[in-house]
Specification:
By secondary structure, the protein is mainly alpha-helical. Among the domains are: about 35 residues, no CATH class; about 100 residues, 2-Layer Sandwich (Zincin-like), CATH 3.30.2010; about 170 residues, no CATH class. It contains 14 helices and 6 strands. The chain has a 3-stranded mixed beta sheet with strand order 1-3-2. The protein has a 3-stranded mixed beta sheet with strand order 4-6-5.
Length: about 475
Amino acid sequence: MRAAFLAGAFFAAAFLAGAFFAAAFLAGAFFAAGFLAGAFFFAAAFLAGAFFAAAFLAGAFFFAAAFLAGAFFAAAFLAGAFFFAAAFLAGAFFAAAFLAGAFFFAAAFLAGAFFAAAFLAGAFFFATAFFAPDLRAAMVGFSFGVVRGPDFDPRKFALQVALAQQFHLGQGDILLCWEATIPYVGSPIEGSPAAIHSPSRRGGTGLNAPRTAEEILTLLRSTGAPGLASVALRENRSTLWSLTQRGTVLNLHVAYAHAPAAVLLSFAALIRGAGRRSDEYRAARKRVAAWDGLQDHLARIHRNSVGSSRRPGPCCATPLQRVYLQRLYRYLNATRFLRRLPATVPIRLSNRFTSRLGQMVAGTAEGRRAVVEIALHVDLMLAANDAVRVDTLLHEMAHVANYLFDGEVGHRRRWREWARSVGCNERATCAAPIQARDHRRALPARVPQLPAGWRRWASPAVLMDPLGPSASSSDS
């Protein structure tokens, strides 16, 4: 019984052990199945992750490709827009160039037509000047609307001159109208072409067929001097022109009766009372003084009037001033003219000069050319005019040389060569005004200093002057 109990216990234990092992087996199988299932699901999840990763990478790739393609198309659009704008601007530029070329071509064509017309007109007037003087004069008179001959209207002519100046026509054009519309007194046939186109009337230095004072008055009244009352022609020795009686009377040297209209019209600017510092006044004075016929006529007067009986004019210089002028003359004669001028020339100061600073009066002595005197403006003795005084004396000494060596009087080429060689102003007039004394009746008694070293160049005759040592107080 005990053995049966033990066997039953053993079988029971074996049964329990078998049950345990069966349970363990089942549990192991379950865990193996779980492991396999886990492995399966893990592998499936891993594969799904790999798939999604591949899908993500594919999506990123296609997104990047789409982005780059969009950027490329955007760049292509911008490039197309740029080239389109460039092509548009280039087309506009070429269109503008075409219009500009058409404009300049039209302008060149019109300019060529204008110059061709001007050439034809010039050729026509040139031909008519030689072959049809009457036709030329008639056309000029018609173009200005004035009538030739005795029907000439000064007021209408003055209006035409004003219109010509308004349209910037030159003085020669205005004078051409004047020359073609006014017959001159003294012509062979009144109003004939020979009278109208006489060379002495169109300029030059001809001295034939002089105008009368009435003709000059009519000319000046018609061209800017309506307030002029009369014109007087005078044969003065030095004064060329002056205005008296409050600017209503013009006194002219008789030489201007032979002057062309261009010179006479300059007096209109002087009569109008323009300021002496104005460009118009200065230009008019230059034209009046630079007329070549004036020098020719003055030379003729000098040739007819010079002689041994001519004497120097009145002198307002003090004795010391006379000594100073002689010493300065001899110094300049030695240093600038190499003693080629006479050792002594009468030099005086004048208080009658109004528009000139000095003059040289030519004459003859025993049938030979001689100098009557040199006259200087008394205001040149003022301290402010020291440089002008020396230059003026050199100017007149150049006239002395020009007259004695060349037989000429005036400011011609040979005189300018003399002036240039001695270093004085080559102009006929002084460029700047000089200082004037405060009172016309108060004459300056000042004796300027002589240049340094003047004694070295002065001859003994100059040093031994009749005034004695008292004159040396003014020496340098």
